Amino acid sequence: MNEPASRSEKLELGVELLAHLEHEELALPAAIDRIETVTTSPALTRDILDAAEKRGIIEREDARLRVQRGGTYVNYDSQVVQREGEFECRRCGTGITTGHFVKLDAGELGPFGSSCIRKVTGRDDDSE
């Protein structure tokens, strides 16, 4: 549902997701966990990280990312919408009846359960 159709759309969605992280620094595995909500392709994951770095959105050092965001984190009031229905969480695969969707300029990402939406947007501190 609401799956980005093309590789370039997935790339843009992944880059924008990284640009909207809550914390300014996070471990590479935590960033990859978020990117995997867009794609599980290792090649596309690398391309998303490379594109975000080239655009000045992130800086990479060892196994950590520093987000150069300037306050662009996801606004829950305007960018997260809830829908009722039968969904499967895009992050953990659990069946859910309330789906949380993130509206970004590059597209919509979801559905996520209530705890996974917090992890995907970086609201839960799993940056280590």
Sum this structure up briefly.
With 128 residues, the protein is α+β, with helices and mostly antiparallel strands. The chain is built from five helices and six strands. Strand 2 and strand 3 form a beta hairpin.
Please characterize this protein's 3D structure:
This protein is 36% helix and 28% strand. A hairpin with a 2-residue loop joins strand 5 and strand 6. Helix 1 (7-19) packs across helix 3 (42-54). With 128 residues, the chain is an alpha+beta fold. The chain has helices spanning 7-19, 28-35, 42-54, 76-79, 114-121; strands at 25-27, 58-61, 64-67, 80-88, 95-104, 107-112. The model has no long low-confidence stretch (mean pLDDT 86). The radius of gyration is 14 Å and the shape is globular.
Defining key terms:
6 strands; 128 residues; 3-stranded antiparallel beta sheet; alpha+beta; 5 helices
Helix/strand layout:
Elements: H1 7-19, E1 25-27, H2 28-35, H3 42-54, E2 58-61, E3 64-67, H4 76-79, E4 80-88, E5 95-104, E6 107-112, H5 114-121
Antiparallel strand pairs: 1-3, 2-3, 4-5, 5-6
Helix pairs in contact: 1-3
Identify the overall geometry: globular
Structural category is alpha+beta
In quaternary terms, these chains amount to single chain
Q: How much of the residues is beta strand, in percent?
A: 25-35%
Distance between the termini: 31 Å
Strand line-up in the sheet with most strands: 1-3-2
Number of helices, where a helix is a run of at least 4 consecutive DSSP H or I residues: 5
Radius of gyration: 14 Å
Helix residue percentage: 25-40%
Q: Mind summarizing the main beta sheet?
A: 3 strands, antiparallel
Mean pLDDT: 86
Query: How many β strands by DSSP?
Result: 6
Helix/strand order: HEHHEEHEEEH
